Amino acid sequence: MAHIAWLVPSLIExxxxxxxxxxxxxxxxxQGHRCTLYMENGSDLSSANLKKSIPRIFxxxxxDVRAGWNTIEPADMVFATIWYSARVVRDLAFPCIRCYFxxxxxxxxHPMGSAHVMAENSYRYGLNPITIGRWLxxxxxxxxxxxxxxxxxxxDLDVYHPVESLRHDSSSVCFIYQPEKPRxxxxxxxxxxxxxxxxxxxxxxxxxxxxxxxxxxxxxxxxGLLGLEQCNELYxxxxxxxxxxxxxxxxxxxxxxxxxxPVVEVHGENTVYDLPQDAVALCEPTPESLAKGILDxxxxxxxxxxxxxxxxxxxxxxxxxxxxxxxxxxxQRLLDGKGLQNVRPEPLYRLAPIRSSLEALAAFxxxxxxxxxxxxxxxxxxxxxxxxxxxxxGVRAIRRLKS
Length: 403
Known about the structure:
Structural class: alpha/beta
Number of helices: 13
Order of helices and strands: EHEHEEHEHEHEEHEEHEHEEHHHHH
CATH topology of the largest domain: Rossmann fold
Shape: globular
CATH architecture of the largest domain: 3-Layer(aba) Sandwich
Number of strands: 13
Oligomer: single chain
Helix content: 25-40%
């Protein structure tokens, strides 16, 4: 069996990305491989403390956990797991199989500048990318002529599944609300849900996924960070799940589908490769279109039930073990010296995006609604400071043209 090292970024409580890294490292050690974790936050915690933190926060145990990336001992295979770890793996002095565990197109985490370009450079270092989902191989092939293997988005069906006793008839929407993560488009989602609440006042809006409360101007409930079983209960009690992710699909829509919850997401290059069109409604990335997608499902019980069944059926073929075995097969192929197979996935979702018509836009105007780009409204705080004055100037120019 092989010795496999992982360079893991600083631990973040509640991080799905960390859970996925650790889950796959744990799978390899169950297959008999020896896994060593090198944790980025070596200056903050000792190796002993880090070793205790992993099972406490994420439930996985590893025998060999080390602080820092400064001294990586020889191993048969080494995984980068975040863009700035790819260069560390590239520059290792010993011979090994150099891999890149890719969960997002991380260059999009940053404005166009050095960080964006350097994150893209991580795909140019000659590592072997293994991605979650089918969009990233297409992206890497088109943009960098780089081959990548992939494994499917899956869910733990022992955790995420329908519970008929929790179903109810009231109208409710849950939204994964993470203002600290720009790729989750918290402001866009809140704008859309504000329209939903205005058009359907009886609909209950539930936010979850972060300790950050944020600024929300309509009646809602924020449940903060939830455990896995609590998430499944929420998905079973709600009518629609809203999840927005712009750098790759999140795992969350797949967990929602496993629980039988209809999903609304943004229609984009990154979402059409993995999400099924009979269980998910993909919308243009405007608040009005997202609101229309949600309201259409809320108003059609037959369609909602059909979407729920389709999602559950889709995920029956994607239990957690399926994705782990796909990943394990790629790792074994590399260890056997066979290299990566040439993967060129095709989009799964082929419907046009849901679009709010021009006539509907006027109907969505909400008295007293806080416009996201209204000067002096306090709603520009999510923009980088240099852009706020630009945005305000643009709004003033538009107003002058209208006057």
